[in-house]
Amino acid sequence: MSAPLLTIEDVAVELPTPRGNLRAVDHVDLSLEAGRTLGIVGESGCGKTMLSRAVLQLLPKKAKLTGRVMFDGQDLVRLDSERLRSLRGRDLAVVFQDPMTSLNPVLTIGTQLMETIQEHLELDAPAARKRSIELLAAVGIPAPEQRLTQYPHQCSGGMRQRIAIAIALSCEPKLLIADEPTTALDVTIQAQILDLLAREQRRRHMAMIIITHDLGVVAGRADEVAVMYAGRVVERAPTQELFKRMHMPYTEALLAAIPKLDTAPHTPLPAISGRPPDPTRPLKGCSFAPRCRYAAGRCHEAKPELKGAEMPDHLYACFHPIQMTEGIGA
Amino acid sequence: MMQLAMPAEPLLNVDNLVVEYGLGNKTVHAVSGVSLQVARGETLGLVGESGCGKSTLGRAVLQLRRAKSGRVLFDGEDLTAMEGEALRKMRRRVQLIFQDPIASLNPRRRIGDIVAEPLIIAGVKDAAERKRRVHEVLSAVGLDPDIVAGRLPHEFSGGQCQRICIARSLVLNPEFIVCDEPVSALDVSIRAQILNLLEEMKTRFGLTLLFIAHDLAVVKAVSDRVAVMYLGRLCEVGPSEQLFAKPAHPYTDLLLQAIPVPDPDVRPVESVATGEPPSPIAPPSGCRFRTRCPRADQRCSAEIPELREVAPGQFAACHHPLA
User: Fold this and answer.
1) Interface test with B, best of A41, A187, A223 (most B CBs within 10 A)
2) Is A187 in contact with B214 (Cβ distance < 8 A)?
3) Are B220 and A263 an interchain contact pair (Cβ–Cβ within 8 Å)?
4) What is the Cα–Cα distance from A43 to B67, expressed in whole angstroms?
5) In angstroms, rounded to a whole number, what is the distance separating the alpha carbons of residues A192 and A190?
């Protein structure tokens, strides 16, 4: 086992709001090795995007960040902006949800690709152009030379996301963060983009973080999954292990609430009652307790720590974990 | 077009509907000759990717978008021939729920007034009667009328706003509701609540639904029959279970395979879907799916496939249906 490429240590993010401080990320620890994929799953407002912004050091100006983000031997939190700029786009790349807003509408695709390449790599214009064409071909864009002179609005959503991925891959990043990369896309295009990301990740031996609200997206593609709820990681395990024996009632409820293709029509869905807590009014106990069917006295009084029991790499934050022994619910 | 077998007179009968948009000097062929029927008390799911014309079809049913040709028969009456007062009267019986629940509520009006608005438009003059109806539907969707009626939309979450939209759509006692992606904007845990609520309301108020969505699993959860649409045409129609178990149209099959399954033992099938949908401005000749179809041959580009019965109640528009 090699040393992790990325280590997130005790990271917390607070945002001031008129209603008081909002704790978007509540003391999260995570690590990721080169060549591996981590899936971060959670519903909107759970802090998954803020966590990725903390890694990228792209938080809103007023946000208060504590903790350490160790990337390739340096703490990104304490890095000056000059060094950060040279890291971002080169070793540390990102693909956002909406490919329309992450591409500049008034610059050609070629300009945007070559700009990134020339900013970070010592290449002259013809070499950068050649590399751009190679990259567009690699992400499955037909007639890449012609695409270079086109603008983003001339491409479909799926094409734009491929271009955004080409830009992200242009300088051989060590870590690629894909924040809901397929949420804005249709299901057949989603499958293509997820295939593309997985293929490039293997080929380049990059580390990748896929952030999504869809457990289905990470199930077949991540090595490890972290489930977030109300700013905290509430369960984390190797993907196979997590889906086989989830310990956190929230993970179980989230999976159960997804309509399945093999369920008969008109079967009532096991919905999670209520909604997530107000992030400006943190609860004393477990954040999921008000919606949890296993919650008892202690759950409302104290926060369960994220820890492992039977398996050292399967962590969960729950006083009443489920499926602790094969076939028997707790 | 082919008539689909139906035990009784359908509540909604869409007959060879064509809807086109002008775009500069070009024409967007949004809906190109779609026929479908919805029986009273039935939920018909309508699935397809963005731009396939499913929302346009939903709007054309309600006459919010007028058809170029074809007919929409509701309870035997042709809505496409109606105008003015007659159409307004008919619209009380057919309602619409939109995708974005927050955007479909006026941010400056109180919930009680928003839900009562359709009653005012329908000419219910008695304020006490309106209040009674508003209370009834708000309670039905799981909200406390005494608490919510005086509040503004921004005080509610997306899921609650969708409950309010559902209440508003129910207030005139409609028979038919077009649900256009009603849960796509909602989180997974809230989505299940709203789907269950729609099912409950359907039973309680004896509704008939046209349920439009891009998520096949969501559609299957609520639909008796499912219609699959691609680039303005129907590919396949059939009973939900049957269509999902044995899709006959290659496009239905592709859609089913592309869905990410929340089970790590199911390895994703690499690149089942190739290419992207062509533009509805210049749809391919013959079968519109042929440019992405692994089974396409010359006949597919020459001849438009008609919907044919491939199994009892299951119809596919394909020259080379899957066995």
Assistant:
1) A187
2) yes
3) yes
4) 39
5) 5
- Reported in sequence order, the residue ranges of chain A that DSSP labels E, i.e. its strands, are 6-17, 20-32, 37-41, 64-71, 74-75, 92-95, 175-179, 207-212, 224-229, 232-238, 307-308, 315-316
Return d(Cα B175, Cα B76) in angstroms, integer. Answer: 14
Residue among A37, A261, A287 with most chain B CBs within 10 A, to mutate? A261
What are the angstrom distances between the C-alpha of A198 and each of A83, A146, A210, B197? 29, 26, 10, 38
**Top-tier CATH class for A6-222:** alpha beta
Assess B279–A contact: CB distance below 8 Å, yes or no: no
**Which residues in chain B have their CB less than 8 angstroms from residue A240's CB?**
264-265
pLDDT band at A329; cut points 50, 70, 90: very low
**Cβ contact, residue pair B273, A189, below 8 Å:** yes
Which helix (H) or strand (E) element contains residue B287? Answer: none
pLDDT single digits (tens) B137-164: 999 999 999 999 999 999 998 899 999 9
For B147-288, list the strands marked E by DSSP: 176-180, 208-213, 225-230, 233-239
In chain A, where the domains are located:
6-222, 229-316
pLDDT confidence bin for B135, thresholds 50/70/90: very high
Buried-state track B203-228, b at ≥16 Cβ within 10 A, e below 16: eeeebbbbbbbbbbbbbbbbbbbbbb
- Is the CB of residue B12 less than 8 Å from the CB of residue B38? yes
Cβ of B241 within 8 Å of Cβ of A265? The answer is: yes
**What is the number of CB-based contacts under 8 A between chain A and chain B?**
138
In this prediction, residues B63-90 reach a mean pLDDT of 93
Q: Do A265 and B221 touch (CB under 8 A)?
A: yes
Contact B262, A243 (CB under 8 A): yes
Which residue ranges make up each domain of chain B? 109-171
Per-residue pLDDT for A63 more than 70?
Answer: yes
ipTM: 0.83
- Check: CB of residue A242 under 8 Å from CB of residue B167: no
Element (H, E) at A34: none
Establish if B100 touches chain A: CB-CB under 8 angstroms.
no
